[in-house]
Design goal:
Layout lengths: L2 H31 L1 H23 L2 H11 L4 H29 L7 H6 L1 H6 L5 H6 L3 H22 L6 H18 L22 H16 L3 H10 L2 H37 L3 H37 L7 H8 L2 H16 L5 H26 L1 H22 L6 H8 L1 H19 L4 H21 L3 H18 L1
Length: 481
C-alpha cells in the first residue's frame, strides 16, 4: 500500500474507533446505572430510528464518497456534486421526518423517546463526512469530532445516575451526533469554490443513490431488524440489552478490520476512473491478506477473552452476554472479507448489482432465521441468525468475483492464519476461565494471545510479517544513518 493509503487507514481507523470506543468508555458505567432493561429499550427505539435515518440518507454516504473520489482534482466539479447531494439530502430527510412523525405516534409507551430521537434523523442533514472521505482527508474528520465526543462522555458521567435518566442519555447521544456533524462544516470553505452560473442537477443523482440505498436497507435487516424482532417476538427488552452489549464489544473489534474499506473505496474509485485494473487487483489481494491476518486473531481473541472481559466490563448482570459475544465473533472474519469484496471492489468498479443482490440475499436469510430461532432461543437466536446471514453474503460475493479474484490462491496464502488463531484461542480461553475477571487479567490475556500469534507466524516465516519487519528495519536504518 502507498504511504497515503497507510496513513489514511490509520486516520480512518482512529475515527471509526473514536465513534465506537468513546461510547464504550461509558459502557461499564451505563451498564451498571441503566441496566439491561433500559439499555434494551434504547436499543429497540434506536433500531426504529435507524430505518428512517436510512430512508433519509438514501445511500448518499457511499455514493457521495465515490463521486467525490472520481473528481478529487476538480474543485469546481466536486463543489457542484457536494451542493447537489446536500440539497437532495435535505429533501429526503424532510420526507423521512414527516413519515417518522406519523409512525411513532403508534408507539404510546416510547413516544417521548421517539420525540428526542428525531434529532438523530435531522442531524444527518449536516453529515458531509463522505466529502472528506472522498478527498482521502481523514485527519480532518477525526480532529473535528473528538472534542464533541469527549464532551458527550463528560455529560454522561455528570448527569446519568439511574434508569430514569434514559431520556437524558438519549438526548446526550443525539446532540453529540448533531454537533459532531456540524463541526465538519468549519473547514469546508477550504475545499470548495464559488459556483457562478452553474446549473445544479439534483435529479441525476436520484437513481444511482437509490441503487445503493436498497442494499443498505437490506443490510439494516440483518444489523438492526434483529433488535426490533426480539422485542416484537418476545417482548423482552432485557434480552435486547444483553444482545446490544455483546454486539458493541464485537463491533469495536470489527472496526479495526473494516476501516480499511473506507480508505480503499476512494483510492480504487480513482484507479477505476483511470482504467487501472491491474493496480486495483493488486490492492484487493493486499487487502484480503491484511484482513485475514488481523481478522482471524481478533475473532479468536474475542471468543477467548469473553468470560474474563464481560463480568468486569459490563458487570455480572450481563453474564448472559458472554455466549452471545463468543457466538457473534465469527462475523469479524465474514464482514472483513465482504468489506474487501463489496466495498473495495464491487462498488468502486460500478458492479452495484452484485453488491445489492448479496445484501438482499443476506437479509432474506437473516429474516427467515430470526423468525425460526428468536422465539425459542431469544437473543442467541438473533445472534446465530446474524452469523449465518453474514456468512451467506460473503459466500455470494466471493462467487460473484470468481472470474476476477483467484479464490484458491487467497485461501492457500491465508489458511494458516486459522490454524495459528485456533492455537492462540486454546491458551487465551484457558487463561480467561482460570483467572479472576479483572481489567489487568484481561490485558494480560490479550498480551499473551498477541505474543503467541505473532511468534508462531514468525516461526512459520509468514511473508507478510517478514515484509513488515523489513520495512521497520529499513526505516530505522535510514534514521540512524
Amino acid at each position: 500500500m502507498k504511504k497515503s493509503v497507510k496513513m489514511n487507514y490509520i486516520f480512518n481507523l482512529g475515527y471509526q474507533l473514536l465513534l465506537i470506543a468513546l461510547p464504550l468508555i461509558t459502557t461499564p458505567y451505563i451498564s451498571r446505572v441503566l441496566g439491561a432493561k433500559a439499555i434494551g429499550t434504547y436499543s429497540f427505539t434506536q433500531s426504529i430510528v435507524t430505518y428512517f435515518t436510512l430512508l433519509g440518507c438514501i445511500g448518499l454516504g457511499l455514493y457521495g464518497q465515490r463521486e467525490i473520489a472520481y473528481h478529487q482534482n476538480d474543485a469546481l466539479q466536486r463543489t457542484k456534486i457536494l451542493y447537489e447531494l446536500i440539497l437532495l439530502k435535505v429533501i429526503s430527510i424532510a420526507l423521512s421526518l414527516g413519515i417518522y412523525f406519523i409512525v411513532f405516534q403508534t408507539f404510546d409507551e416510547y413516544r417521548s423517546l421517539f420525540y428526542i430521537q428525531m434529532i438523530d434523523i435531522f442531524a444527518n442533514v449536516f453529515d458531509i463526512n463522505y466529502f472528506y472521505q472522498g478527498l482521502e482527508n481523514f485527519k480532518k474528520i477525526i480532529a473535528r469530532n473528538i472534542t464533541v465526543r469527549f464532551i458527550s462522555i463528560i455529560c454522561v458521567f455528570a448527569f446519568i445516575k439511574s434508569p430514569q435518566d434514559l431520556p437524558l442519555y438519549i438526548l446526550i447521544q443525539s446532540l453529540s451526533l448533531l454537533f459532531g456533524n456540524l463541526s465538519m462544516w468549519i473547514a469546508l470553505p477550504n475545499y470548495i469554490v464559488k459556483l457562478d452560473h452553474v446549473k445544479l442537477e439534483i435529479g441525476k443523482h436520484v437513481k444511482p443513490t437509490l441503487i445503493l440505498f436498497f442494499p443498505q436497507i437490506a443490510v439494516s435487516i440483518y444489523t438492526v431488524l434483529d433488535r426490533t424482532m426480539i422485542e416484537v417476538l418476545t417482548g423482552n427488552t432485557e434480552e435486547i440489552g444483553y444482545y446490544e452489549q455483546a454486539q458493541k464489544i464485537v463491533k469495536l473489534a470489527l472496526t479495526i478490520v473494516t476501516s480499511l474499506g473506507t480508505v480503499m473505496l476512494p483510492r480504487i474509485s480513482n484507479l477505476f476512473a483511470d482504467h487501472d485494473m491491474h493496480k486495483i487487483k493488486e490492492y484487493i489481494y493486499q487487502s484480503l491478506h491484511f484482513v485475514m491476518m488481523i481478522a482471524v486473531p481478533i475473532m479468536f481473541g474475542i471468543m477467548g477473552i469473553a468470560p474474563n472481559l464481560v463480568p468486569w466490563f459490563l458487570s455480572e448482570k450481563f453474564m448472559a452476554s458472554i455466549p452471545l459475544v463468543m457466538m457473534t465473533a465469527p462475523i469479524i472474519v465474514f464482514i472483513g472479507i465482504s468489506n474487501v469484496i463489496g466495498i473495495q471492489f464491487l462498488l468502486p468498479t460500478r458492479r452495484q448489482k452484485a453488491y445489492t443482490l448479496s445484501t438482499i440475499m443476506g437479509s432474506i436469510v437473516n429474516l427467515i432465521c430470526n423468525l425460526l430461532l428468536i422465539p425459542g432461543l431469544l437473543s442467541m437466536g438473533a445472534t446465530i441468525a446474524s452469523v449465518i446471514a453474514e456468512a451467506s453474503v460473503t459466500a455470494f460475493q466471493l462467487y460473484c468475483v470468481r472470474e476476477d479474484i483467484d479464490i484458491k490462491k487467497v485461501w492457500k496464502e491465508n489458511r494458516h492464519y486459522l490454524l495459528v488463531g485456533a492455537c492462540m484461542f486454546g491458551v487465551v480461553y484457558a487463561l480467561s476461565v482460570f483467572l479472576t475477571p479483572s481489567i489487568m487479567h484481561t490485558l494480560f490475556i490479550i498480551s499473551v494471545g498477541v505474543v503467541i500469534y505473532f511468534v508462531i507466524l514468525f516461526i512459520l516465516k509468514d511473508k507478510y510479517i517478514y515484509t513488515i519487519m523489513q520495512t521497520v528495519k529499513d526505516k530505522l536504518r535510514v534514521k540512524s544513518s
